[in-house]
Amino acid sequence: MRTILNFKNESIYLLITLLSAIILIPFTGNVHLFDWDEINFAECAREMIVTNSYHTVLLNYQPFWEKPPLFIWMQVISMKIFGINEFAARFPNILNGIFTLMTLYYFGKKWYSKTFGIVWAVIHLGTLLPHLYFRSGIIDPWYNLFGFITFVGIIEWIQNYSLKWVVIAGISLGLAVLTKGPAMVLIVFLSTIFLIFKNFSRLNKNSVFAVILFSMVFVFIGGSWFIYEYILGNKEIISAFIDYQIRLFQTEDSGHSGFFLYHFVVLLIGCFPSSIAALGYFSKNIKKDIYSFSMMILLLVVLILFSIVKTKIVHYSSLSYYSISFLATYVIVQMDKFQQWQKYLHFILAFIIGLVLILASTIEYWKVFMIPYLETTDKFAAENLKVNVKWYNYEFLLGIAVWLISYWYLFKKKFSIQTHLSFYLIMIMWICATINSFVGKVEQYTQASAIHFFQYCGEKNYPVDTYGYKSYAYLFYGNRKPLNEIEKQEVERYWENLQNAGYEKIFSYNLAYLNWLMYDDNKYPVYIVSKIQDEENVLKTGRFKKLYSKGGYVFFMKQR
Fold first, then answer.
1. Contact yes or no for 447/471 (Cβ under 8 A)
2. Do 516 and 489 meet the contact criterion of CB atoms below 8 Å apart?
3. Where are the domains of the chain?
4. What is the CA radius of gyration of the chain?
């Protein structure tokens, strides 16, 4: 540790970059992208490349109103370099991981010390969900990084009155809106209200100018794409985007419902082990300051806000990862031992995680007892389990390993910074091994059967679609091409009929496309994939013959 502290800052940043790349790059592209989110964004990037049109986000070659384009642009650049594949789709978040860890080191050093900055970066990477997100192709890591920089920029301005941080915060919030949408504005606004209340006596006459400057920069950056789309006449996209954001707050969108404390549970387990250390912040023995207070406020605002929101998705509370890793670091730097309740809670969670891994790694032995039950309750899940997946009979050791690592860590008589660093460095290696050993096998049970079929259709340039379930995999892996003018007219005829039947225009295009494939007299082979529960519905159309079924999916070819 002392050796690292003797390095110059430039050397530490270089070390963070190299170690992050060594940890995050290997095997990141070895597993298919997961439906829905990963494939959704990757497909939007692919369609930008295919159409050579980069200003509007497209999905199935129709305007996609749910997300702005910034992250999609990152994936486009990555795909231009690495090709259209899984690694390219996930590479922007590898870069995000590197930038995030450098950002944490920078602010940890600025606020406290080099030691704090290094420990914060290591703890963040040694926490389950943040680490997993850096290996993903989802939009949230960049969205959260921009939101975090916005918030700490405001903190820096309150502490130092430097307009540089006002501009940085305005730019970052604008980039967050261009990445995912306006929810970050509400989070930052609510969190800042508490900060201003806490530091009201520190504000001066320059505060009004700072607010105006921040707002101008934010609106210029965050509104640029929306204004451009408005000028192009795409008002319908902007209107649908706003309606979608409102719907997420008011309804359980896309079936993503959950109980009120959903995000408390997600963060407690998903941010293991740093979530346990972070809880120690609420002990009376821990000294508080403005920075720890700010991170606590950010955590509580995110938790309460998204507990109120009807739609429950794991990603929504992911901005809290920064607060949790910070508070864990803040507590660890101050304490020389865990409180007894923290030890028990840590080991309970470690036991649960280890047990889940052991059960998952032995699934081929006990699934024969589950399948008969699932045949009557969830036939799709039963068929998932019937897929033969090759396990190497060592994976259960990772479940035991997390028990042993936790036991070694928790029951030391006295802690030191070196002890904590050693534990989290071991956790980083354990997380890497666990991801590489389990994620690909889970994917084989859940979706690989369908994706292999989509890939076959994509290689042959055969149209393929799904019936009865939502997916983006058939677009990306089926390599869907744009329609020619005659085909567009035929699809639009079905689309018009659906609208006349009461379907909303902006939601009904994919159904019109499916109806065209199923019922029109196409001159080429057409394939349909359904889940097993919809097999009879496809056959009742009289237009398809069953090819085979596997993994809960049924594959059909249109009869000619």
1. no
2. no
3. 2-335, 342-443, 449-558
4. 25
